[in-house]
């Protein structure tokens, strides 16, 4: 199956991480679909990708973080694109430093868990059946780390949310050891930015997108966690396919 026959659903594709992935996938000839709650973010994404690729990008307004919203988005998606062969999930938010736990409310923690963990679970439950039994398919999670680097004053709830998403991905690997679809994860232990908003040690979202695209293109690993601590580590993901 050539890249042009493959349709990748990029969950979170309108975000900082996701937009780099979407652009890289389109540049390699894949068809890509993105669901976002915000039509203006989708417009921004359309103007960000190369003009000769725009026809290969399908955008749908929807909320994949609720069971009802995810089912509605799935129906709209299948009507538009017919099939999904691959999924990349980078749902969540870029950063959270709301303060130490005693200054926070239950609502704050609920928001963190809803955006990081619950949207990842609910969308996985809705969309995984589309690719689960196909050995030519991939499902790739992009998560943050939850180690020492993240835990600094005021980031506690981010660590709680990131840790729970990591645990969820581990649970999937353990519960579905034999699933035909290739199930992989990139665990990013550093910041990710657009070329205009970079800081020392950050990953350029376009370089990250290239690494994710090579993983999706190759389909030769499953149940693997690629840990990315610095930009050089992305090369490992890309080069492993050329060994
Ligand atoms: N940015 C970083 O520095 C960094 C570093 C390490 C790891 N990561 C990982 O990458 C993930 C994404 O980060 P990011 O920087 O790309 O965040 P972002 O720019 O805020 O984008 C997150 C995306 O997730 C989507 N999303 C969240 N809940 C949703 C829902 N219920 N329904 C539909 N879409 C939903 C948002 O969609 P809408 O368009 O609908 O708002 C948005 O497009 C993080 O959660 C983290 O695990 C990021």
UniProtKB/TrEMBL annotation:
An individual GO BP term: fatty acid beta-oxidation
Keywords: Oxidoreductase
Tagged with keyword Nucleus: no
Gene Ontology CC, one term: mitochondrion
Oxidoreductase found in the keyword field: yes
Record-linked Pfam families: adh_short
InterPro entries: NAD(P)-bd_dom_sf, SDR_fam
Any one GO molecular-function label of the UniProt entry: 2,4-dienoyl-CoA reductase (NADPH) activity
PANTHER family tied to this protein: SHORT-CHAIN DEHYDROGENASE/REDUCTASE, SI:DKEY-238O13.4
Protein name: Peroxisomal trans-2-enoyl-CoA reductase
Organism: Oryzias latipes (Japanese rice fish)
């Amino acid at each position: 199956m050539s890249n042009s026959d493959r349709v990748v659903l990029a969950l979170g594709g309108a975000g900082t991480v996701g937009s780099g992935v979407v652009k890289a996938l389109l540049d390699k000839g894949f068809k890509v679909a993105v669901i976002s709650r915000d039509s203006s973010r989708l417009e921004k994404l359309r103007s960000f990708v190369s003009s000769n690729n725009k026809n290969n990008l399908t955008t749908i307004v929807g909320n994949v973080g609720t069971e009802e919203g995810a089912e509605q988005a799935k129906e709209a998606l299948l009507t538009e694109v017919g099939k999904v062969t691959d999924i990349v999930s980078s749902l969540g938010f870029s950063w959270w430093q709301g303060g130490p736990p005693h200054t926070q409310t239950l609502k704050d923690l609920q928001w963190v868990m809803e955006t990081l963990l619950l949207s990842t679970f609910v969308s996985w439950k809705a969309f995984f059946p589309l690719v689960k039994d196909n050995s030519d398919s991939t499902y790739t999670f992009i998560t943050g780390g939850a180690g020492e680097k993240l835990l600094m004053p005021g980031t506690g709830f981010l660590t709680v949310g990131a840790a729970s998403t990591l645990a969820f991905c581990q649970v999937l690997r353990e519960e579905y050891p034999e699933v035909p679809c290739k199930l992989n994860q990139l665990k990013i232990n550093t910041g990710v930015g657009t070329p205009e908003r970079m800081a020392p040690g950050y990953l350029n979202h376009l370089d990250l997108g290239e690494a994710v695209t090579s993983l999706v293109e190759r389909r030769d690993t499953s149940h693997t966690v690629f840990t990315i601590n610095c930009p050089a580590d992305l090369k490992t993901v890309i080069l492993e396919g050329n060994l």
